[in-house]
Amino acid sequence: MSITKKDVDHVAKLARLDLNDTEKDLFTDQLNAILKYAEQLNQLNTEGVAPTSHAMPLVNVMREDVAKPSLPIEKVLLNAPDHEDGQFKVPAVLE
């Protein structure tokens, strides 16, 4: 299987990319090189190799969900540009 300039032009149109002829030639060559490498990988003997979803075994490393006290409201509002009654005050977005 190989990629033609027409294929690159079609994908560029789908992606709404405006490619010049030099870029189309470059991408055609690059995509064909990728396919050639993939064909080499297909020739490898993978019999007896278990399928994996990740190269390294993954373990859930998240901490326990423990409730902690919140920051005091004075400290939360310390850097707020404007606040009122313990809440952030922002400009109105609706008229």
UniProtKB/TrEMBL annotation:
GO terms for molecular function: asparaginyl-tRNA synthase (glutamine-hydrolyzing) activity; ATP binding; glutaminyl-tRNA synthase (glutamine-hydrolyzing) activity; transferase activity. It catalyses: L-aspartyl-tRNA(Asn) + L-glutamine + ATP + H2O = L-asparaginyl-tRNA(Asn) + L-glutamate + ADP + phosphate + 2 H(+); L-glutamyl-tRNA(Gln) + L-glutamine + ATP + H2O = L-glutaminyl-tRNA(Gln) + L-glutamate + ADP + phosphate + H(+). Keywords: ATP-binding, Ligase, Nucleotide-binding, Protein biosynthesis, Transferase. Its EC number is 6.3.5.-. Transmembrane segments: none annotated. It comes from the Bacteria. Signal peptide: none annotated. The keyword Nucleus does not apply. GO terms for biological process: glutaminyl-tRNAGln biosynthesis via transamidation; regulation of translational fidelity; translation. Belongs to the GatC family. HAMAP family: GatC (MF_00122). PANTHER family: GLUTAMYL-TRNA(GLN) AMIDOTRANSFERASE SUBUNIT C, MITOCHONDRIAL. Heterotrimer of A, B and C subunits. Allows the formation of correctly charged Asn-tRNA(Asn) or Gln-tRNA(Gln) through the transamidation of misacylated Asp-tRNA(Asn) or Glu-tRNA(Gln) in organisms which lack either or both of asparaginyl-tRNA or glutaminyl-tRNA synthetases. The reaction takes place in the presence of glutamine and ATP through an activated phospho-Asp-tRNA(Asn) or phospho-Glu-tRNA(Gln). This is Aspartyl/glutamyl-tRNA(Asn/Gln) amidotransferase subunit C. The gene is gatC.
